[in-house]
Amino acid sequence: MSTGIAGWITCRQVLNIMVIFGFMLNYALRVNFTIAIVAMTKTLVSTVVPDYDDSTLFNVTDTTMTDPTTTEGSVIKEADKFEWDARQQNLMLGSFFWGYVLTELPGGRLAEIIGGRRVFGYSMLWASLLTLLTPLAANTHYIAVVILRAVLGFFLGASWPAIHPLTAVWIPPMDRSKFIANMMASSLGAAITMPICGFLIATIGWQSVFYFTGGLGLLWSIIWFMVVFETPASHPRITPEERTEIETAINAVGKKKKPSYVPWKSILTSPPVWAIILTHGASVFGFFTVVNQLPTYMKYILHFNIKENGLLSSLPYFGKYAMAVISSHLADYLRKSGKLSTTATRKIFTAFAVMTPGFLMIIQVYMGETRSWAVGIFTLSLFLNGAVTAGYLGNGLDIAPNFSGTIFGMANTLSSFGGFVSAYMVGQLTNDNQTYGQWQIVFWILAVVYITGSTAYVLMGTGELQAWNNPPEKGDGNGETEEGVPLNTRNQTAAVK
Question: Fewer C-beta within 10 Å: the chain N or C terminus?
Answer without folding.
Answer: C
